[in-house]
Amino acid sequence: MLRRYRGVCLGLVGLLLSFQVSAAVLRIATLSPDGSTWMQTLRSAAADIKQRTAGRVDFRFYTGGTMGNDRTVLSKIRLGELQGGALTASSLDAYVHDLDLYSLPMLFDNFAAVDRARKVMDPWLSRQLEDAGWVNFGFAEGGFAYMMSRQAPITSLDQLRLHKVWIPEGDRFSATALSAFHVTPVPLSLGDVLPGLQTGIIDVVACSPIGALALQWQTQVHQMTDLPMSYFTGVIVIAKRDFDRLSPADQVVVRSVMTQAFHTLDMHNRQDNLGAYQALVNQGMHVVHPDAAQQSQWKEASQQAVAVLQAQGLVTAAGLSRIRSALAAHP
User: Fold this and answer.
1) What is the pLDDT of residues 234-255, one digit of tens each?
2) pLDDT value, residue 331
3) What angle do CA 4, 5, 8 make, to 5 degrees?
4) What gap in Å lies between CA 199 and CA 218, rounded to an integer?
5) What is the C-alpha to C-alpha distance for residues 250 and 247, in angstroms, rounded to an integer?
6) Which CATH number is associated with domain 2-328?
């Protein structure tokens, strides 16, 4: 009887330990491929966390879009199949509208303006994400998105209106912004963009230089307009309900290590994008420069687009005021 009792107790202890281990596995999905700088940094951070928590917290990454696009990943997090994702910040706009502020058309002229705005906005947006139920560790620069076209150079809005412009499927923000430019976009999933360029379903994309290289879009687009159309960031979020299952001490470790990892990624990504821009030029990308009158036309249309986006509730008046104040501050 004693032996059986001890056996039952040991079995229960084993089950409890098994539950604790499984509860501490944080399953994170990302579009980034294995071997990328992004994944190397995240895997290094995860290994550090595992060591510092004596194995109580482990990360399992699903890379290369195997779990689907950002919206699919968010759905799987809500269902409990995943605990978090490495996503574009704007994909969380259903929870925090002002995450789209960075993506406002032609908001930034250069990286100095970006840095002024992010110094103020990053902490504010992070708090809003936390309040909406998403633990995050800051933002990592995705870079400026430039218009890239297959053949014809684009320097004016009139020229753009003659083209088939891609936007991500389900991206209401981009669709609304382009409608203010009087451009009718073609929505496609990320995986359909390269075939779409090859077949002529689309002939213009807006993306970062490093994105064009990573996705091999530079094999189909040969003209780049030297205007930063928008700016985007990446973020890792973990559902607060899952993060709260960790002990307070382990939460501190995860926050500390992942925040430092995102700071490192933020710095590396800028240099990588600058290098990718030059790589595109070296590979034969023709860069076109709108003249002063054309730039003024782009700016005017962008301001109209911002007004429409605010009127439709896709960004808030408070958020716009905050980011404009940050941009107006002295460097």
Assistant:
1) 999 999 999 999 999 999 999 9
2) 63
3) 85
4) 15
5) 5
6) 3.40.190.170
| Cα-based torsion angle of the residue sequence 177, 203, 274, 226 in order, rounded to the nearest 10 degrees | -70
Residues 6+ apart with CB under 8 A from 237: 84, 85, 87, 92, 129, 134, 135, 136
Which residue is associated with the tokens 């430019």? 181
pLDDT of amino acid 191: 86
Q: How far apart are CA 280 and CA 286, in angstroms?
A: 9
User: Any bridge partners for residue 166, and if so which?
Assistant: 186
pLDDT digits (tens, 9 = 90+) for 42-60: 999 999 999 999 999 999 9
| Residue 200: predicted pLDDT | 95
Residue type, 104: L
What's the pLDDT score for residue 36?
85
> Stretch 154-160: mean pLDDT, rounded?
95
Mean pLDDT, range 263-289, rounded to an integer: 95
SS3 labels along the chain: CHHHHHHHHHHHHHHHHHHHHHHCEEEEEECCCCCCHHHHHHHHHHHHHHHHCCCCCEEEEECCCCCCCHHHHHHHHHHCCCCEEEEEHHHHCCCCHHHHHHHCCCCCCCHHHHHHHHHHHHHHHHHHHHHCCEEECCCEEEEEEEEEECCCCCCCHHHHCCCCEEEECCCHHHHHHHHHCCCCCEEECHHHHHHHHHHCCCCEEEECHHHHHHCCHHHCCCEEECCCCEEEEEEEEEEHHHHCCCCHHHHHHHHHHHHHHHHHHHHHHHHHHHHHHHHHHHCCCEEECCCHHHHHHHHHHHHHHHHHHHHCCCCCHHHHHHHHHHHHCCC
Are 312 and 246 contacting, i.e. CB atoms less than 8 angstroms apart? no
Give residue 303's pLDDT band: very low, low, confident or very high (50, 70, 90).
very high
Whether the CB-CB separation of 221 and 212 falls below 8 Å is answered with: yes
Q: Is the pLDDT of residue 174 over 60?
A: yes
